[in-house]
Amino acid sequence: MGSKxxxxxxxxxxxxxxxxxxxxxxxxxxxxxxxxxxxxQGDGGETHQTxxxxxxxxxxxxxxxxxxxxxxxxxxxxxxxLIEDFHFREKIFHFDHERIPERVVHARGFGVHxxxxxTKSLADMTRADLFQRVGEQTPVFVRFSTVAGSKGxxxxxxxxRGFAVKFYxxxxxxxxxxxxxxxxxxQDAIKFPDLIHAAKPEPDRGFPQAQTAHDNFWDFVxxxxxxxxxxxxxxxxxxxxRSFRFMEGFGVHSFRFINAEGKSTFVKFxxxxxxxxxxxxxxxxxxxxxxxxxxHRRDLWDAIKGGHFPEWELGLQLFDDAFAERFxxxxxxxxxxxxxxxxxxxxxxxxxxxxxVDNFFAETEQVAFCTQNMVPGIDFSDDPLLQGRxxxxxxxQLKRLGSPNFTHLPVNAPxxxxxxxxxxxxxxxxxxxxxxxxxxxxxxxxxxxxxxPERGFTSFPEEVAGPKTxxxxxxxxxxxxxxxxxxxxxxxxxxxxxxxxxxxxLSKCERPDIRARVVSHLLNIDVALATRVADGLxxxxxxxxxAARPTRQELPPSxxxxxxxxxxxxxxxxxxxxxxxxADAKLLKALIEAxxxxxxxxxIVAPHIGGVVLDDGAMQPAAQKIDGGPSVLYDAVxxxxxxTGVADLVGDAAxxxxxxxxFAHCKFIGFTQSATPxxxxxxxxxxxxxxxxxxxxxxxxxxFVAACAELRYWPxxxxxDLDA
Length: 724
Ligand code: HDE
Fold this sequence. Notes:
The protein has helices spanning 12-15, 26-31, 86-96, 192-199, 215-222, 228-234, 282-291, 295-305, 321-326, 360-365, 384-401, 481-488, 492-507, 512-522, 527-537, 585-597, 646-650, 653-664, 676-681, 700-707, 715-720, and strands at 109-118, 137-146, 161-169, 172-179, 249-250, 255-258, 264-273, 311-319, 346-356, 378-379, 574-579, 601-606, 612-613, 619-620, 624-625, 636-640, 669-671, 692-694. The chain has 724 residues and is of the alpha/beta class. It folds into 4 domains: 86-206 and 237-408, Catalase HpII,  Chain A, domain 1 (Beta Barrel); 419-461, no CATH class; 480-567, Catalase, four-helical domain (Hemocyanin, N-terminal domain); 574-720, Class I glutamine amidotransferase (GATase) domain (Rossmann fold, 3-Layer(aba) Sandwich), CATH 3.40.50.880. Strands 1, 2, 3, 4, 5, 6, 7, 8, 9 and 10 form a 10-stranded antiparallel beta sheet that branches. A 6-stranded parallel beta sheet has the order 15-12-11-16-17-18, sandwiched between helices. The radius of gyration is 30 Å and the shape is globular. CIS-heme D hydroxychlorin gamma-spirolactone 17R, 18S binds next to strand 2, strand 3, strand 4 and helix 11.
């Protein structure tokens, strides 16, 4: 009351703890080296002024230099604000409009730059320019994503992952907008809104977020038997990848290659990760989502920043009309694959991701993939999903980016010459300059571009005839045979995971009739699977669903469908080293050397972020404090404790979880003898198996890291049985 406040150039809250504004300024001072903030000056009462000519002056969007960015213009020190404060109004106005609509699907994503390099010429198959010259590189932008979750959802949702690649070719942009699963839920694009509505949060309550474990999703799919092949994939470990770097990508649809003579060859596109495939366990996924919701984007960011550029091979399945005719299923049906045994995948190039974005919004958020971005030499097939997508993507970009000129944004702009008569519209940045903006015209050289029958995109002149109808082809009617083929191609532990995932998801459905309807479809796929799920749900076994076509029992297992059948390696993986004071410095050094030698990385986890004092007296800095670096974040762990140091760990719940989770998640565990009390406290000391490797001497370090190449010790899961 009555106490006069001292006028200050700081807001009241910033001043709350500081008699002088100097005390409230260190953030700005620290940031100044990285960003072009004005430098703090003096001891309060002054604004933050540009200190020297090297520091940029803050301006408005109109370029007007700003004198004070800390205080609105007001009458007196405590009076009302003035509307003429154009800097304040512009700043708030722009802030209010920072958001654009998130993607209806695939809202959560992460994009990076890289290049595609051709390793085998396809000149005989296609006239597409990027596939002509071996060794030539084409710049790309790749965005990985989940499908169901909102922009801020966690990375480890059980979900399909998007794998969208924009190739900036010399003949225009080609977008291969694929997924990490080679089939899709539905056969006709007209069902897409229903599928997505059913998968997204339920409309009355607005939850659950980023998960299919709810009634609406399972209600829809149980009434759509065509989805059951895809259901097998998303209930498998494919839907919880360890990293974007360890997953495959698929163009899904059949496309066409057209060569210079106009000959068409069907093609399916595959991306094969050089580091192999790897997924996490569901129990692990749930914990990763809590510990690091950005696990996948951080992983990609760290890998690229660390110079470990992720790489994929581009594989093609090429086949002709005769194969399409004799194949058991319809090559236009996106709920089917072509097994690699029937049409081998030929490797023709590599994709290298070597550059993170400068700005997330400008690039990852504004990138606009469109399936209809197609280049001469490649063409669509009549797959009804693909045809529908060709409408949706352009339409959705207009909604999201707000202008038909979204192609002017650098991330979307082709990197080859463009010449057309399209003009105006919101945010037009590249209107044509010549006199004519129409064609035909008689302005000669001023007349602008002309069509080019030789170079131009031409559609394959496929002959199509038939009645106009809304029928779905009979050749799309078999819904279970390939679902079964996928299931029987899995290793036993992978089959168990599928059963566990189905049981988990259906246990989240409130309506028993929905659970039963799903199991009735599983009966058409594999009786043992259906039985396992019914038992897990305590459900009376229903009758099998009525099938439009009987399930083919004779389709053989296909090895590439199993993750665990693939070669394994620890390269590109991360070892979590839990260390204490007094830890063996030589052993730690040997572990780090072994990890780096095989192209893996490590993180030191310690009781304090400041690090641990090793037995040689050196200070080893930590990357994580124990509760910030749970073992779920690592592919394998080593516990390098000293006898005295382990006392810090045994009383710490996070340290006990570190050990017990690593064990439950079938990880390789290296440990020093002195770490045993922690293993005892974690309840795993009596169950140690061959993947729990004692680090007795320095020599054991390399042997342990070599053993980690197996990635998981699966027999352990059968004893722990986390999920069932
Ligand atoms: Fe998409 N899909 N989709 N989709 N899709 C979108 O486009 C759509 C489908 C895929 O990182 C949207 O820009 C329909 C299959 C990826 O930006 C939208 C149908 C496959 C991405 C859209 C499908 C995909 C999208 C939303 C049924 C794998 C993210 C935002 C016919 C082959 C791209 C956007 C990125 C995004 C429509 C089915 C992959 C609404 C109508 C099958 C990777 O246009």
